[in-house]
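Sequence only, no structure available. Ideas?
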Amino acid sequence: MPSEFTGKHVTVAGLGVSGVPAAKVLHGLGAHVTVVNDGDDERARAQAAELEALGVTVRLGDGDTLPEGTELIVTAPGWKPTKPLFTAAGQAGVPVWGDVELAWRLRGLDGRKPAPWLAVTGTNGKTTTVQMLASILKAAGLRTAAVGNIGVSLLDAVTGEEEYDVLAVELSSYQLHWAPSLRAHSAAVLNLAPDHLDWHGSMEAYAADKGRIYEGNQIACVYNVADKATEDLVRAADVEEGCRAIGFTLGTPGPSQLGVVEGLLVDRAFVEDRQKNAQELAEVSDVDPPAPHNIANALAAAGLARAFGVSAAAVRDGLRAFTPDAHRIAHVADVDGVAYVDDSKATNTHATEASLAAYESIVWIAGGLAKGATFDELVAGAAKRLRGAVLIGADRALIREALARHAPEVPVVDLDRTDTGAMLQAVQEARRLARPGDTVLLAPACASMDMFTNYNQRGDAFAQAVRELGA
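Reply:
I predicted one. Tokens follow.
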């Protein structure tokens, strides 16, 4: 089928999970595709061979030079805007899109009615919220999928054979930066905290890219009442006439908000006479796990679903059916009256703050690669909850120093080792510090790559060490 891409010279920047599908789709639409990639390793060569067999040109080891004749760049989301490739594109007047922008523009190309997007971003909680939302939509009998930054290609969703009524879309700040024409049915920003500032350049630029998710919203901009920065983004957004600001709160909701009343999740936004009425959606106990930040995730998901017209019963049923991914505040076991909880996904201070707030008396296992983070505010806020701390990883000294300043009475075990076996010793030390009724919580506030392949491996090591305690 002829398309706007037929005969067009398109450069795809980066191989991997977004670049390869983008190159294939564009080639299939008749574009002349050249892929450029910084790396030239075994995996890249294998991907290049696959694309070259289709007739796509691939240049490995040079991701900075703009190919001659380029009319459009489609980039992997993680490529920094400061790369020489994009500087050259700007000078040549060549537009730069991300794979999300490409997916948005390809909706309905095959003649099918495009599925609306319910979009979610935020520093933390995106994946869980999108999965909750998809579960709710499915409970309502809708054909849907959780796609985007969650690891499922949006391009596949909009160009594949399966038809959807609505899509639950997770979007990162990187993806939003490269998606200028995205216009969601409704969208949510869960929270904002410093993250990826080396990529964006400043907190203001990071927040502005997050705020792009609200641009052109049709029905609802869902924001976090406890995080004023998210509401500020709603106020700054240029939305369609009649689009509403919908808040979510862990307290009693006001009109046009969702919140919590006496153990119930309630809706005062999508009801008749919201000044006086509220609709029960679910019980707090329907949320797994019922930690405060996860209840907030559930409320955000419910807000988006209700904006799409989903019933209260479907919200309840979808939350009950939802099972969280591993390593997200996951209860591993109880040993000698002590709970052991794996929140290895808490790779920054904002996520760890939420994790620590979920428990009353904690032996905290923390540390890894700090990525430029500071820990004073985190430790000061959690000090009264800490029974003890066990520190691991390359940048553990930063946490140790914050503990010395803000929680000097808390006993600290500093493990001077960065091999993977350190986790077993950390769990053993935590057991020694814990008392019945305590929670030993792995919430590292740091990245894992100094000791582990990723946060999944780190969480698996923790769970295995806990199982060895109970053996």
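The chain has a mean pLDDT of 94.
Hope that gets you unstuck.
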